Structures are given as structure tokens and as C-alpha cells.
Amino acid sequence: MKLTFWGAARQVTGSMFLLELEDGYTILIDCGTDLDKQKVERDKLLGHYSLFPFEPSQINLVLLTHAHIDHSGNLPNLIREGYEGQILCTTATLPLADLLLRDAAALNAKRVKELQSEPAGKKKKTSKKKFRPNPLELYLEKQVHETTDRFVTIGFNQKFKVSKTISVTFIPTGHLLGAANIVLDIEENGVKKSIGFSGDVGRKNYPLLPDPQRMPQVDYLVCESTYGGRRHADKDAPEEALAKIIKETCIDQPGRLIIPAFSVGRTQALLFVLNKLYTEEGLPPIKVFSDSPLALASTRVYEKNIGLLNKEAKEFYEEHEELFDFDNLTYVQDMKQSKAIANYNEPCIIISSSGMISGGRVEHHVMTNLPNPYATILLVGFAAEGTLGNKLLKGMRSLSISKDKEIPIMATIKSIDVFSGHGDLDDLTDFVEYQSNDKLKTIFLVHGELESMESFKSHLHYRGYTDIQIPKWGDEFEL
Fold it and tell me: Where in this chain does the record put each Metallo-beta-lactamase domain (predicted)?
């Protein structure tokens, strides 16, 4: 069989791996949006006539590790270009993927209108760093509906027989509700082989989610390496870290705390921890605004899947009957309500997306409060190069928004990583070391920046693993 890396190769996003068996049966593992936009080689090959370097109609099966767009976001395009098969995923991944894909389709609809409004033959000027969307990528809600109709859900740890010679198992990995590592057991010419795909490895003791479960021994392992070169800096429990910042920002002084957070996963962890602080730790009644319709919808998905959460969350729910809703919480429904928050003069906490401050309602909250010395902007996750979140973390003192207008940054900028859903170097090492280095033939490192991959490769070499590959886009390997 042959494994080809068509995404997340020497970059973080766009997970897409094609497994071709000797009898012609083909399996695509993940089909994510390339948010890094490193597409030079792809565009040279495809000539802009397709989004895929293979024929989608020839794929027999798609497996989806979890709902995040960098793993699921190209599925509607795959179907639009001819894929006719099923998409296997876990029960909780289906509703979350549906929400995220519909949200992406709504953004695409706006982009389509912008492209259609441009004069014929002219292109809107964009900066070199700003990516101009390829019209082929802009699927709409109709394509999302066609996609989710193809989903077939499989329970965790249930060996699902695809055929007489192929079975697939979804193994809990934390990170996000429904997220899984995938093990494929395949028999070819009387020889049995197993291939493991990590998806995104979660971290231990994360709010709401169980710890990553052990993957059985495999012959080949495709392993993410997002945090392969570093450890999480914050050692405090999420409750302690957040309570300390709330005290400094909203209690010791009459200020406001703005938390940019991804709507699916990160916001639910924050709301659960805040509920614990108010309910069990006696935090004063400070108003909390959750300003994201997508966050509200995904929170309801979490509430319907309490059985998949960790022991702490289940026990809290049994005692208090609510995981996320508490007296001081307001879910903001529309833009009018969102903008009205600026007129709220009491100390408050605002949680809004996007997490990197690259679009979404949070941009308005951040821009409004940058000149406010009583405001704190708390980054709780990774912020990619070029985003406003990344610029703020680098310590910029003012923000130029036009030739004649510059905003001084008087707000306090802080960051913590206790809410990061990715396992760090220690978590990834534990994940790999469940595999015997005598039996594991090859490790393929994906889903990380090259520097992180090379650091993790050296780390694993030191621990006795020998054949470790860092594939480039389009590299293929015989297994």
C-alpha cells in the first residue's frame, strides 16, 4: 500500500492523507482547509482547475478525526468535485462539523458577493500577506448539506469492518468533543498491517474532556507535532490561572477582561471553568458576555453529549444540573447587542471569537478597548503570524488603522496557555511511547511548523525511535 501526504506537511493546517491499497481501494484521512496558504507547489500541479491532486470520484472512503476546519473544511469541495462515498466519524463530530462547515459557508457567501462586485477584469488590491480566496474553494450551504448527508457515525473503541480486509477504530484523544485518533487494520496478500493517525493529540487534565486514550500497537504512525518543540508554560490549574487574572482585572480595579476564544472547544472550557469559579469558589458576581452565535450552538452540542465528558464534568453536572449556564452569564444574540456591550460600564468579562483576533465580533471589542487602560486582553491560545493577536503578543504599542489614524495601545495584553487543547512535548512523547520502538516501523511527523517537527524528531531519536520521516507536500511512501 502507498501513503501520500497531501496536507499538513511541514505546516500546521490542511490535514489530508491518502492511503492507496494494492487492489485499488483508496482511503482519505481528513480533508482540511489549508489555513497556512502555502500552496505554490499545489497550484503548479493543479493549474487552478481542481482543489485536489487526485481524482475525488476515485476515493472509496473518507475518515474524519475531528470537526476543526483544518481537518474537515475541504469536505464540501471534495463532494462537489465528485466524491460519492461515506464519511466516517464519531457521533459528536457530526454536529460540530455541521456547525463549523455552515459557519464557513456563510463566510464564503460574503466573499462570493465581494468577488462578484469587483469590476470585470480588475482585482481588488490586497497586501502580500493577505490571502485572496480561490473561487473554487468557496462552497456554500447547499454543499454543506450534501456533505453532512454522507456522514456515518461510529462509536469510540468499536472496531468497524469496512470490508473483509479493512477495519477502522476511533480512539478518544481529548482535544475537542468527539475528537479521535484513528487506527486502520488492513490485510494485504495475507499480511496484516496497522496504521495509526493521531488527528490532534489532546492534553491531560483539560477542562471537560477525558485524557487521551492509549493507541494500540501499530506498524506505522502518523503523528501531529504542533507542540513538538515546547512545553506548556503555565503550570497552574485553569481555575487558578483564570481567577488570578479576573481578580487583577475586574476586582482590584473596575476593569473589563476581553478573551478572544475559538467558538468550538475553547469557549466551552472557559465557560465551564467560570461556572466552577462562581458556583464553588465564591467569585463575585461579575457579568460575563459570551458573544458568538456559533459558541452558543456548539455549547448546546456539548450539553447533549455529557456522557463523552470527563469524570469531573459529569460529577459537576450531577450536582449543579448545569455545565455552562450561570446567573451572571449573557449569551449575545446579534450585532446590535454585541455593540451595546461597549456601553456597559461595570466590570465585566467578554468572551468572543475569533481566538487569534482575525475576524469575528471580537475585533470590535478589542479595537474599542485598546486605548482603555482599565482593559485587559487575554490571549488563551496560539495566534498565527500576521494576526492581530500575534501582533499584540509581540508588544506593539500602537495600531495604525489608516493613514491618518493610529490607536495607542493602553490596554494590558496577557496570555496563558492552560486552555490550549493541544498536547505539548510531554503529552506527544507519552503518546508515541505507547508504541514499542522494536515494533513501530516508521513515524511520520505532520501538522506542525518545520522547526517544531525537527525538534520533536531529535527528541524521539534520543528516546530510541529510528525511522522518523518529515514528509513534504506530495511525498509518498510504500508501507
Answer: 13-262
